[in-house]
Amino acid sequence: MRASASKKPPQHPVRQGLEGFDSLYRDHVDLIYRYAHRLCGETESAKDLVQETFLNAYQGLKDFRGEAKVSTWLYTIASRACIRMRRKRKGEPEHELSLEEFVPTSEGEFRLQIPMSGLSPEEALQNKELREALDQAIDKLPKKYRMALVLRDMEGLSAKEVGTIMGVNERAVKSRLHRARLFVRRELSARGITEHDNQRSGGLRS
Amino acid sequence: MNKKKTVTPKKRSRSLSHHHTHSEGRCLDLLRQLSAYIDDELPSDICGEIRRHLGACPNCEVFIASLQQTVTLCRHRSAPELTSVDRMKMRRAILTAANAR
Prior knowledge:
CATH class of the largest domain in chain A: Mainly Alpha
Low-confidence stretches of chain A: 1-5, 198-206
Order of helices and strands of chain B: HHHH
Distance between the termini of chain A: 61 Å
Helix content of chain B: 55-70%
Number of helices of chain B: 4
Largest sheet of chain B: none
Radius of gyration of chain A: 20 Å
Strand content of chain A: under 5%
Helix content of chain A: 55-70%
Largest sheet of chain A: none
Radius of gyration of chain B: 22 Å
Structural class of chain B: mainly alpha
Number of domains of chain B: 1
Oligomer: heterodimer
Number of strands of chain B: 0
Mean pLDDT of chain B: 81
């Protein structure tokens, strides 16, 4: 192995100044807004989070050394900003989710009482009640679990990338993701969805 | 998303038998591994054990289907998009705040 490989002179991975900011903003604002909206659950907070993220990114452009992808760097800034903002606004207590609380105790808790049978996910999600139930379930998650779920299952990042963004190892990411999925599943199961939008019947197997 | 991993089996987890008490035992073992199973991250011998258990335990089979559906719904939930006016307004607000600091 050549020792010189790791001694390349550092080249700055992003352009600096206003021009650099504009390029960064143009290429990533939609990505970060989508992430912010999924984290915050509503438009105004999502816009605030996007602005805070890009303000921090603008001021930190010179310090970005390209060790991670630009998108990973921005996701990280947004995640930290989100934690700060939510703390300020809600002072919400964080609680841990334990696996034991997700063990079904009655027959009806095993399945989702929602009209999905024979529908594609896109068709199922045309049901407004289902969309609202899903969004509310995700919004009820404690933030570290919500972040893991949003980044992994909604943004489609790998467990390793999510770990980099959240500052934890892959094992912790998978553990949080698993609990987050079980939480959302339980919320949907408990809710039960009527069939305002879809004319199909049935839950999972009825 | 969720690339299939090739994992060398190390040691076998506790065996999953056909015990149907969902507050303890085999079904709890399964509950712990469901996301890894859905994401195809488990060694093939463990997957085989899980499939055998699911075939004999209708409650676990329904439960895992409901978890898989939950994940599918999350993956397909779209998010709203910004308008070009919003993009422009936000850019201006960011630069104003940056200059003020």
